[in-house]
Amino acid sequence: MTRQRIGIIDIGSNSVRLVVYEQTDEGAHRVADSSKRSARLSERVDKAGRLSDAAIDELVDTIQHFQLICRHNHTEQIRTVATAAIRNAVNREDILRKIELACGLRIELLSGEQEAYYGFLGMINALQVKDGFLIDIGGGSTEVTLFRDRSIVSSVSFPFGCVSMNKRFGSSESLTDEGLRALEEVVLNAALKEPWLLESPGLPMIGVGGTVRALGKIHQAAVKYPFPQTHNYPITGQQTDELFDYMRRLPVDKRRKVPGLSKDRVDVILPGLAILRVLFRTTKAVHYRICGAGLRDGLFHATKFPDRPKLDNVLSYSLGNLSALHPQAPKEHVRQVNRLALSLFDIFQASSQLPTQSRVLLDAASQLFRIGASIDYYEYAKHSFYLIMHSHLNGLTHREIVLVAAIASYKSKNRAKQQISDYKELLSEPDLEDICKLGALLQLAAALDRTETQAIQQLNAQLNGAQLLLRPIHQDSSLTVERREVEELGPEFRKLWGVTPHLETVC
What we know:
single chain; Hypothetical protein af1432; 46% helix
């Protein structure tokens, strides 16, 4: 299999972005390169609605620069799309023609509905969520989508965004009380023309795009949040309102120093959050959730998998993709350990008081426990913990990712306690005990294939008093090594589960 690379260029109203996606030799997909340039196209439209020639020339220069990056990456296909700023410009045909002549690229001018669809596709392939509102506040437009059972019900594209609203209502210092009231009135009046926005209260509001990502980064910095990702980060309406009010009181020079806020978003963060808050209140959403994927990810999935761009199972795909990114892990051994670990869990499930999600966590941990070998075999458990914590593992909450990482790398209770110490605010008191129990099951499953030969074709496991009897039904070879490994795990396993595992072998 040869590596394949697809470049996505997104000509937005606030910035122009390039992402190069790669398919590895093992079939995994990842971002191989990316670049961003501030454009502020919505600010550079004159009163007649025309984008200036200087702005067009700069846009051409940016796209040609991105083409050079794509050539450097041996990118086979480049898909270029334009959104609200060009869509709303009266000279849009001239803009597209100039870009296409200068760059030799066909530019897709997305409609508001298409923009909403691709944003939804990127989000729904990155979050395990069934129902909600999706909001994407761009520089010149805002898309809102209602989805039920992971499918779009209704969507709308409003002709305003953080850049255009800042140009219309902002001042050199901040968003004044008068400007804020006028902005909120525009947003509310537009929302009231879409009755379906008012008819589904109690749903989460999922946010994609720069405004909500900035909100997440600012809040995480303010509370010293320990997890290294904003993707799948929840924020309450009250927390958002408090941050908004706090930043409104700051002069621009001090707002520039707010941790988590990038310098190119200092002036547009307040209009963006003002739009967000009005639509949150109008829909009667229950909380915000930030999604790190969006339009460009949706375009990638639609380009790479045109027949089935929407994933059936977000977590399953993500686990398979992360495993494929680390092919040094022995595939057959990992599959065997995964199968055995889940079989052992099912034996204890009825008598244990583990949370209902425990089987999902053990399933994920037993698929990923060896990925650290791609860095160093001798310390693979430690590296597996780090890789799981810092990879894009979609379909799990931040707390669940910490649990999976700790289970996958489990060696002892003391070591697990040390590993999770930095993330204690995400965890509850019983979590350490659950990590140890599930980690011990994973250890036992790995011991049952210590020679990595998959000698146990089928296993009959039974609880018999103080023993866990493990009887291979089909055995391809001697299990002397496995039996010794199981015996060594015995004392620790008994402390956690109250039984001692015993592997019965056929001589």
